[in-house]
Amino acid sequence: MVRVVKHKEMNLIERLYIFEAFRGLYTTIKHFLRGFFRYETLPTTGYPEVKPYIPRDYRAKHRMMVRPDGSPRCVACFMCASACPAHCIFIEAAQSADGRIEKKASRFEIDHSVCIFCGLCVEACPVDALRMDTCETSFVHPKRKDFIVNLTDLTSWNPKDYPDDPQSQVAPGGTQNKQALEVWGEVKC
Amino acid sequence: MMEFIESKTWIEWLLTIAKLALAFIPVLFILLLIPMERRGAGFIQDRQGPNRSYIKIPFFGKIRAFGWIQNCCDGLKLFFKELYEPKNVHKVLFSLAPAIPFGLTLLTPCVLPYFASLNFTFGDTVVHIPAANVDTDIGILLMFGLSSLSVFGTVLSGWASKSKFPLLGALRATATSISYEVCLGLSMMGMVLLAGTFNVEGIVSWQENHVWGIFVQPVAFFCFLLSAIAETGRPPFDVSEGDPELVAGYHLEYGAMQFGMFYMGEYGHVGINSILMATLFLGGYSIPFMTTADVQANFGGVLAALFGICAFLALAFLHMVYRWLREFNKGKASNKDEINKEYLLYKIIAWVAVPVFIALAIASGLFLHPEATMVNGAPVYGIGTALGTAAVQFLVLMVKTVFFCWVWIWVRWTLPRFRYDQIMHLGWKILLNIALLNLVVTAVIAKLVMGGN
Amino acid sequence: MLALIYFIILAVVAVGCSLCIFFTKHPLYASIAMVTTMLSLAGIYGLLGSPFVGVVQIMVYAGAVMTLLMFIILVLNGSRDTRTKRFDKVSIFVLLSVLAVAALTSIVLCHASFDFNPDTVRGGVDVTAHTLFDVSASGNGYYLLVLAVGLVLLSAMATAVILARKRIASDPENAKLEEVH
User: Fold this and answer.
1) What percentage of chain C's residues is helix, strand, coil (to nearest 5)?
2) Is B347 buried (19+), middle (13-18) or exposed (0-12) by CB count in 10 A?
3) Are B331 and A43 inside 8 Å of each other by CB?
4) Residues B206 and B280 in one domain
5) I want to staple C46 with a disulfide (CB 3.0 to 4.6 A). Which of B195, B208, B286, C54 is the partner?
6) Interface subset of C 103-142, CB within 8 angstroms of B
7) Is it the case that residue C135 has pLDDT exceeding 70?
8) CB contact under 8 A, C51 and B149
9) Is the confidence at residue C77, as pLDDT, over 70?
10) Is C27 in CB contact (< 8 Å) with chain B?
């Protein structure tokens, strides 16, 4: 389908350019005076001091959900690593100490300098272990090595930062941790 | 040699040599133009502009001075970069070229008066010191002659870089600037015709006694403004540089302070043209409705008004600071302590300044009554009044000049860039004809009305 | 005294740069030398007490004409002239004619009845014009000088024509030898 856009014919005053130039100057001086005399009304924020609002479903830095006893939820099924188009997830499986669970991840590393933040790993996870709702968007490190996060980094989040999420409150330190721990029970070999 | 030295009294020599410092004023406009340009552009585009660079002082912490520290950062960065030149450049001309526009920026304003000629009694003698460094009857011609030489800097830098982009950029810049210099000269001639002299101080004193140039020569003013903007090669007439075709124009191969010299030359040129515009069309150093004699006679009143305005500006500044801080403290910024400490310094300065200015205003209004001695039927005052009048006139000129500097920046960030053929069309087919017509009409009217020779 | 020092400096610069115009083979350097000559000439005019002529010299010659000349050199890809010999048979005639013109000028200068007093010409534009072109006031010396300068200009024009003809007639095969900058 071809869409024909017809430009409005310019009248004589517009074609003379000079009057339109003055109109443009009027527009810019309005903005300048707003910035100069009403500095606080500028829509921009001083970024590092004032953090911008980032919604919870923004695909940000990963975190690993934990069980009520504090162990990571990952069952080392390699679904996320298979789904990852950038091949940035590295998992090493080991036998779980808990008899009810077959495997656990002894190493789980994500290279954020390679990650494309597509969210496919989160979609693929069968046990809802991996999430991307930390709202952390800036990655600044002095070395390339520092961009690789391991299991400890992924699980070291605070349940108090996720007050609306019941799954996060189950973790140690959360409000529903006690009940959840009772349901979960002791580790059976 | 001794005769030459003894031809003037020591105070004349002192003031004549001190006047040489006035040559640096257009270059010092860089200090004003950089923050004005960058933050002004920010405000026009609803941004904040660069306000991060700071110096640290004890107790008050990081002083950002509303983005003025940015000057130091820009300058230091350019100074400490390595002077780099590509392999095949012509070494001598390559390093000579940036010095030409910058040197001419220092040389050109030698004929501009920043205040009326000093005329005062010193002991028994009456001392007369002309305002401009070079006081000739060809004043403004000398200025245009010298500023037309700055084209060589452009040409040589383009050629010496031995690269096609700088060469093409230099060709375009040269063509623009020499074609608009014609309009510049012609539109200025109307004022020269009315005042009947090339001497810049004569033109200003004509405006002082009659009416500002912008009211008798509005068309010439407009032509002058446009051609001055085009001649400095700043947007919207910046054909010499363009990201898609020519990269950075004639200073493409330059870096560090060599680039900085071009930069300073350009800003100095803006400063000079602003001063020239204020001088030719806005009455120069003259205060509206007052001649220099009036100012000297009512020196106390003028000073009182000046200090009153300063006190008002300080109060307005305080109001803005307090209002901004109130809004800022409502927000969620993490550096509230830092900012509040910094603004404490500004508040202290302004709160000290307000009563000082008011006291000075009252004191000068009540107690300052300079005494005149009559020399050849005209009152001549002491050295204090003369220098004070010069300072007031200098301030007035600077206010007018800063307005024109702002016009430069304002136009730059508003109008889109012209195409090269459009610039030539505007210059040769429109502006030149308007300027010529204006000159002819001015000449006829001046002959009929004023009955000049 | 001061004026004499200034004059010597400016004169040395002027003469030196004029010689440079002859002996440089690159047109751009020649034009730069010419600009410097113009500027020092303007300074000498200023010393003689007619700054108006000096400023016109800067504006017209250094500012406009030489800029255009340089412009053309840049556009035409001006390069070092390696074909024309510095001295050939024509040089003898050139030398002879230069000597002749110099002799003529010196004769004019010696015999002309004008006394040069800087104080009389120092001043505005009208004073300069009056001194230069009012025969009754300053004698016919300046007229004779102007005629001598006219001869120099005529010979320069003839040389330019000869050079241009030579360039057109020369073999285009040699174009490859040109050092392109």
Assistant:
1) 80, 0, 20
2) middle
3) no
4) yes
5) C54
6) 124-125
7) no
8) no
9) no
10) no
Q: Which residues of C touch B142 (CB under 8 A)?
A: 51, 55
Distance CA B198, CA B290 (A): 23
Neighboring chain A residues of B411 at a CB cutoff of 8 Å: 25
CB atoms within 10 A of CB B389: 26
Q: Tell me the average pLDDT across B54-70.
A: 87
Q: Is A51 on the interface with B (CB under 8 A)?
A: yes
Strand order in the sheet with A148-149: A89-95, A103-111, A148-149
Cβ count within 10 A of residue B89: 19
Considering only residues A143 and B250, tell me which one the structure prediction assigns the higher pLDDT. Answer: A143
Which positions in chain B touch C51 (Cβ < 8 Å)? 136, 138, 142
Q: In the structure, what pLDDT confidence band is assigned to residue C181 with cuts at 50, 70 and 90?
A: very low
Kindly state whether residues B354 and B410 are assigned to the same domain. Answer: no
**C-beta atoms of C74 and B170 within 8 A:** yes
Same domain (yes/no): B159, B31 = yes
The whole-chain average pLDDT of chain B stands at: 86
Q: Is C179 contained in some domain?
A: no
Among the partner-chain residues C52, C67, C125, the one whose CB lies closest to the CB of B151 is C67
| Residue B268 and residue B329 in one domain | no
C5 interface with B at CB cutoff 8 Å: no
> How far is C100 from chain B, CA to nearest CA, in Å?
35
Does residue B386 lie within any of the structural domains? no
Q: Could you give the C-alpha distances from B68 to B27, B37, B274, C146, in angstroms and in order?
A: 16, 11, 21, 59
CB-nearest to C55 from B145, B152, B158 is B145
Interface test with B, best of C67, C73, C179 (most B CBs within 10 A): C67
Instruction: Compare CB distances from C59 to B145, B152, B171 and report the shortest one's residue.
Output: B145
- The reply to whether B321 and B277 lie within a common domain is no
Closest approach of C113 to chain B, Cα-based (Å): 31
State whether residue C52 sits within 8 Å of chain B by CB: yes
Q: Are residues C102 and C40 in the same domain?
A: no
- Categorize the per-residue pLDDT at B309 as very low, low, confident or very high, splitting at 50, 70 and 90: very high
Per-residue tokens: B184: 């510049």
3-state secondary structure of A85: coil
C70 touching chain B per CB within 8 A: yes
Helix, strand, coil shares of chain A, percent, nearest 5, are 30, 15, 55
Are residues B321 and B232 part of one domain? Answer: no
Q: How far is B50 from chain C (nearest CA, A)?
A: 39
Q: Which domain holds residue C50?
A: 1-82
Among chain B residues, CA nearest to A37: B320
pTM confidence score: 0.81
Mark whether B107 and B136 lie in a shared domain. Answer: yes
Angle between helices B139-147 and B256-281 in degrees, nearest 10:
150
Kindly state whether residues C117 and C163 are assigned to the same domain: yes
The predicted pLDDT at position C170 comes to: 53
pLDDT at A189: 62
B131 inside domain: yes
- Judge whether residue B300 has pLDDT over 80: yes
Radius of gyration (Cα) for chain C, nearest Å? 19
C34 and C67 part of one domain:
yes
Q: How far apart are CA B269 and CA B261, in angstroms?
A: 12
Task: Classify residue C180: in a domain, yes or no.
Answer: no
Q: Are C89 and B179 in contact (CB under 8 A)?
A: no
Residue numbers of the domain that contains B27 = 2-286+403-450
Q: Is residue C35 part of a domain?
A: yes
User: Based on the domain organization, do B244 and B365 belong to the same domain?
Assistant: no
In this prediction, the answer to ipTM > 0.90 reads no
B373 within some domain = yes
Position A121 scores a pLDDT of 92
Helix axes B151-160, B99-107, angle to 10 degrees: 170
CB B237 within 8 A of CB B425: no
